[in-house]
């Protein structure tokens, strides 16, 4: 990982004030990677804190309804804090400890990475600041509440588009100001080298588990592995277990939002172009001048203008295919999985599922596909209730908000 | 000879520290940018950096970020910034530099950007997010120099000795040292470590030193005058504009003059 390039993508396009810190992080990471104790400690916390391994669940009812390939769910939602994010957060927290840092800085979109960061900060004894776009604070209030209960300070970012990209900018600025005692716990496989590599390495346990589990269940590899892609941490995690297999198609599903116009979606591979923003070179949704465009998705975790550089590289090599699912397809998939399998998928993961629902009937019954359910949908209670126009739930909220505790 | 070199010789002759002032193109409008720049020269500025507004300016604090937002919502394009450069270089005699983030140059086309900037009369480029390590892929330094634009290198207090040397080897015109480990914005005082850091840069490199970030008044500049060759004032000037658009011209002349030494 000399300079962190994946073909023409990736790199370390940051101002001088961050280069020494990134060089140090890279050096320390290489040391940790070769250190057996680090690996043992990481695995220990994955088992005993995160709850790994997560199960690979056969979705029998959904499979029968669709009448095609067998659908398996890698249920990352069963991790502690409700998503795959805790996995790389444990890895990064151990790095912060190793480097003697006192503070963790994180950014978050849906709040899942922020929640996982706050949890590891509480567990390993760091103070924690989480930057979150003001729009995301509004739509993911429950996660804000829980982060605060874990002792984190959640800072709403009210510039730019007030979503994930602006939270990343704010977190990087905080890091520039406080680089000496702070560890930047970047939440995805984006940003300057070595972050995309480190986060992918930490998440690769998901791919290893899934591969072992499907071989045990089916005796052969799946035809498809499907994951949603915001920054791409859950996708790189599960894909890394199957990258070398020619007969396994890897599909990344982006947010199709409400339409194809700029600002209506977050599909970087449908309208994006090569650029260099937030420290890395990749595909971004931007205008002719290189200004990032507004994005949209019902899933805050997919609502991001950039995408991990390694994903762009693998896409350019034809190793990963990209597709998209709209807001309403994702909602529909959410409802189907709930009713048929008894599992609430996160709205982010519902995008991957929506694609699987399209794809499964086209494949043989003997074939199998794996869908990465990167998180559970409990956090989306309010968004789903609103989208489903659940009037009684609205009445409940009104009644709740008039209670004394909120009005003192 | 690049105008920057000429200016530096002039400063040496006069035995004084130079002043570089800063504007975001299109903030609050292109017309105002042009009129402010003229006032800056008339009031004694030695260099002006014209920042091309960017949607995600990673080293800028709230003041310049907001200026970028305003400029972009006015519809300011990279091509407008180049036109502004052209107008100003015809009317002013001091060296003008572009400050920009690399993605704007990259999307415009690096070669095309450098050519157009040169034709428009720019003397240098300050691009903070294109480190020397990416040169083999991007050829930023090479392309700038080919077009007789000085690619200004940036150092920070966190820069190691090795990085100072690495950057000084390719430095042209001057090296831009950030006065503090941080982002742009007005600060009450200069970090006491700034002086020793500037001195260590001076020991390592032969290129003149510009110092910026957090410098907002005459006392700041005075305290650094023995340790650097050029003082850069950015956010503090934008604050003058922010205070009252209607009086900004008069206030700006006053403010820029207040930064100068008696000579």
What does this structure look like?
- The complex is a heterodimer of chains A (408) and B (263).
- With 408 residues, chain A is an alpha/beta fold.
- Chain A contains 15 helices and 14 strands.
- In chain A, the strands form four sheets. Chain A has a six-stranded mixed β-sheet with strand order 3-4-14-9-10-13, sandwiched between helices. In chain A, strands 7-6-5-8 form a four-stranded parallel β-sheet, sandwiched between helices.
- In chain A, α2 packs across α4 (85-98), α4 crosses α9 and α9 (195-218) crosses α10 (233-239).
- The longest helix of chain A has 24 residues, at 195-218.
- Chain A starts with a strand and ends in a 7-residue tail after the last helix.
- Chain B has 263 residues and is of the alpha/beta class.
- Chain B has 13 helices and eight strands.
- Chain B has helices at residues 3-14, 30-43, 62-73, 78-91, 102-108, 110-119, 135-138, 140-146, 161-170, 193-204, 218-224, 235-243, 248-259; strands at residues 18-24, 47-51, 96-99, 124-126, 150-155, 175-178, 209-212, 230-233.
- In chain B, α2 (30-43) packs parallel to α4 (78-91).
- The two termini of chain B are 26 Å apart.
- Chains A and B meet through α1, α8 and β11 of A and α3 and α5 of B.
What's the layout of helices and strands?
The complex is a heterodimer of chains A (about 400) and B (about 260).
Chain A: E1 5-6, E2 9-10, H1 19-33, H2 36-50, E3 56-58, H3 60-66, E4 70-75, H4 85-98, E5 103-108, H5 112-124, E6 127-133, H6 134-139, H7 141-149, E7 153-157, H8 164-177, E8 182-185, H9 195-218, E9 224-228, H10 233-239, E10 249-257, E11 273-277, E12 280-284, H11 309-316, E13 320-326, H12 327-341, H13 347-359, E14 368-373, H14 381-387, H15 391-401
Parallel strand pairs in A: 4-14, 5-6, 5-8, 6-7, 9-10, 9-14, 10-13
Antiparallel strand pairs in A: 1-2, 3-4, 11-12
Chain B: H1 3-14, E1 18-24, H2 30-43, E2 47-51, H3 62-73, H4 78-91, E3 96-99, H5 102-108, H6 110-119, E4 124-126, H7 135-138, H8 140-146, E5 150-155, H9 161-170, E6 175-178, H10 193-204, E7 209-212, H11 218-224, E8 230-233, H12 235-243, H13 248-259
Parallel strand pairs in B: 1-2, 1-8, 2-3, 3-4, 4-5, 5-6, 6-7, 7-8
Helix pairs in contact in B: 2-4, 2-13, 5-6, 12-13
């Amino acid at each position: 990982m000399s300079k962190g390039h994946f073909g023409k993508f990736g790199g370390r396009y940051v101002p001088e004030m961050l280069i020494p810190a990134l060089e140090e992080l890279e050096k320390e990471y290489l040391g940790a990677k070769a250190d057996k104790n680090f690996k043992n400690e990481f695995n220990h916390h994955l088992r005993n804190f995160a709850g790994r391994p997560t199960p690979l669940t056969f979705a029998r009812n959904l499979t029968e309804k669709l009448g095609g390939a067998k659908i398996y769910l890698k249920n990352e939602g069963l991790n502690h804090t409700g998503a795959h994010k805790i996995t790389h957060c444990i890895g990064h927290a151990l790095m912060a400890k190793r480097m003697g840092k006192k503070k963790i800085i994180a950014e978050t979109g849906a709040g899942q990475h922020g929640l996982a960061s706050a949890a590891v900060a509480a567990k390993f004894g760091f103070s924690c600041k989480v930057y979150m776009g003001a729009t995301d604070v509004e739509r993911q209030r429950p996660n804000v509440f829980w982060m605060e209960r874990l002792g984190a300070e959640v800072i709403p970012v009210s510039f730019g588009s007030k979503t994930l990209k602006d939270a990343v900018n704010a977190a990087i600025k905080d890091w520039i100001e406080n680089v000496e005692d702070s560890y930047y716990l970047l939440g995805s496989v984006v940003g300057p080298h070595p972050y995309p590599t480190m986060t992918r390495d930490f998440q690769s346990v998901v791919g290893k588990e899934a591969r072992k589990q499907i071989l045990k269940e089916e005796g052969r590899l799946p035809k498809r592995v499907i994951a949603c892609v915001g920054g791409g941490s859950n996708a790189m995690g599960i894909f890394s277990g199957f990258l070398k297999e020619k007969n396994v198609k890897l599909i990344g599903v982006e947010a199709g939002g409400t339409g194809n116009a700029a600002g209506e979606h977050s599909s970087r591979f449908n309208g994006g172009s090569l650029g260099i923003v937030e420290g890395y070179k990749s595909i971004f949704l931007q205008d002719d001048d290189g200004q990032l465009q507004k994005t949209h998705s019902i899933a805050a975790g997919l609502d991001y203008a950039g995408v991990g550089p390694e994903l762009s590289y693998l896409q350019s090599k034809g190793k990963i295919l990209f597709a998209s699912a709209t807001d309403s397809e994702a909602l529909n998939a959410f409802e189907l999985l709930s009713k048929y399998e008894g599992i609430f998928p996160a709205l982010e993961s519902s995008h991957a599922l929506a694609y699987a629902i399209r794809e499964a009937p086209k494949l043989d019954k003997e074939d199998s596909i794996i869908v990465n359910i990167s998180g559970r949908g409990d956090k989306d209670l309010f968004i789903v209730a609103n989208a489903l126009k659940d009037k009684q739930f609205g009445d409940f909220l009104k009644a709740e908000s008039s209670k004394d505790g909120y009005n003192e | 000879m690049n105008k920057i070199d000429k200016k530096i010789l002039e400063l040496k002759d006069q035995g004084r520290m130079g002043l570089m002032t800063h504007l975001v193109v299109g903030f609050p409008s292109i017309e105002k940018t042009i009129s402010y720049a003229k006032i800056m020269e008339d009031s004694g500025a030695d260099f002006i950096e014209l920042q091309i507004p960017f949607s995600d300016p990673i080293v800028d604090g709230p003041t310049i970020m907001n200026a970028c937002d305003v400029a972009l919502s006015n519809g300011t394009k990279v091509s407008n910034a180049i036109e502004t450069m052209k107008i100003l270089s015809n009317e002013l005699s001091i060296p003008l530099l572009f400050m920009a983030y690399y993605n704007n140059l990259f999307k415009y086309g690096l070669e095309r950007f450098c050519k157009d900037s040169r034709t428009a009369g720019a003397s240098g480029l300050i691009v903070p997010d294109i480190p020397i390590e990416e040169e083999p892929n991007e050829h930023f330094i090479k392309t700038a120099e080919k077009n007789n634009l000085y690619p200004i290198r940036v150092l920070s207090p966190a820069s190691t000795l090795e990085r100072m040397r690495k950057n000084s080897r390719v430095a042209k015109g001057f090296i831009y040292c950030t006065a503090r480990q941080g982002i742009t914005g007005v600060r009450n005082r200069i970090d006491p470590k700034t002086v020793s850091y500037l001195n260590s840069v001076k020991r390592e490199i032969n290129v003149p030193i510009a110092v910026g970030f957090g410098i907002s008044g005459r006392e700041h500049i005075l305290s650094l005058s023995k340790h650097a060759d050029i003082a850069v004032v950015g956010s503090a000037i934008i604050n003058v504009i922010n205070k009252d658009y209607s009086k900004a011209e008069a206030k700006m002349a006053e403010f820029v003059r207040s930064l100068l030494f008696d000579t």
